[in-house]
Amino acid sequence: MGQPDVIVIGGGVVGAACAHALAHRGVAVTILEPGPEAGAATPAAAGMLAPFAEAQPDDPMLSLAIRARDLYAELVPALEEETGLEVGFRTEGIAQLAVTSDDVETIKEAVTWQRQAGFPVEWLSVEEVRELLPGVGPDVLGAGLAPEDGALDPSALRLALLECAQRPHHGATLIAEPAQQILFEGERVSAVRTPSRTLSSDAVVVAAGCWSGRIRGLPRSLPVEPVRGQILCLTWPEGEPSAIVYAGRGYVMERGGEAIAGSTMERVGFDASTTPDGIIRIRETVTRIYPALATAEPRRTWAGLRPVTPDSRPLIGLDPRVPNLWYATGHGRNGILLAAMTGQLIAQQYAGDEIEYDLATVSPSRFWTS
Predict the structure, then answer these.
(1) What's the chain's Rg over C-alpha atoms?
(2) Which domains are seen in the chain, by residue range?
(3) Does residue 135 contact residue 293 with C-beta atoms inside 8 Å?
């Protein structure tokens, strides 16, 4: 194995997307990924592509998030054709239920500004909601619908990205070891140390999720911390059409005959365990959406650790002081939505391409100026 052009630290879905996008441009890539940590965000994620779910009128991420969602319609068919792996991509729309009068006002306001901005969202009456989602609960007063939103299987996407990047004509290499330390020569990154070797490289991309800040040798402390999200899996109600539904800050979605429901937002460090209280809160939300799930036996529960920054926006781009150290981390609740776009942006910036978006909102320099 020759010296890589780029070492990507982390092989979750964001690191896999970075490796894939770089390798497709002919860049020699080595991926350092020892295997998912307990609580790794990718295998824990539900996989929703939902840029409108929590968007605000002045959201600086919205246009990028919509383009990130739309990018999958271009990426997935090519990825599935090349690898033969299906990633469960679907665009059936996402409904945001209103179950209180305050919800009605909030969601109608959101639909109004989104339609004024030219987005194809709509308000559904109670009758329209029940036609689309016949099993929803009696409290439903209407819903907002983002018909172009959807979902995919995060673990399947990660595997397909890594498989494609490692095809002989792309040439990426995966080493099943963790990055322990980044090494420098002068002001430039020169190598990455693992438990068994030191790998020289022309550039490094840090994409290790909430573990990114634990890599020794970083030129600064990363403003990324783990936030736990617990998930509950039940059997999808018999006869109910497949759907993705939000209510409040909770959701439930059908995937493979199962109801995937979540999620909590808990700052508990690197504790990836589930708790009775967390699962009870999720169950309460799920039951309000689909009463038929009230007595369903849990199939399994799990938790993931999302990498979150102080402003809930990711770090995508160059370190402001180190000219060959890149960050692709801190995606929080939007890691799956933004993964492919993050890979594309890192590859474009690495190549020196002109970027069509103003990336100040995700630039690492918003936290550090030197």
Answers:
(1) 21
(2) 6-75+154-224+311-366 (3.50.50.60), 94-147 (3.30.9.10), 225-308 (3.30.9.10)
(3) no
Mean pLDDT confidence for 326-331:
98
pLDDT on residue 365? 93
Instruction: Give the tens place of pLDDT for each residue, 167-187.
Output: 999 999 999 999 999 999 999
How much is the average pLDDT of 235-248?
A: 94
| pLDDT tens track for 89-103 | 999 999 999 999 999
pLDDT for residue 106 is more than 80: yes
The runs of H, that is alpha helices, within the chain are: 13-23, 41-44, 62-83, 101-116, 126-132, 154-165, 276-289, 335-351
Using alpha carbons, select from 8, 10, 3, 2 the residue that is nearest to residue 350: 8
Sign for the CA dihedral angle at 10, 190, 29, 171 comes to: negative
Contacts of 58-65 spanning 24+ positions with Cβ under 8 A: 60/313, 60/361, 61/313, 61/334, 61/361, 61/362, 63/357, 64/338, 64/341, 64/357, 64/361, 64/362, 65/334, 65/337, 65/338
What are 235's strand-pairing partners?
258
pLDDT at 36 over 90: no
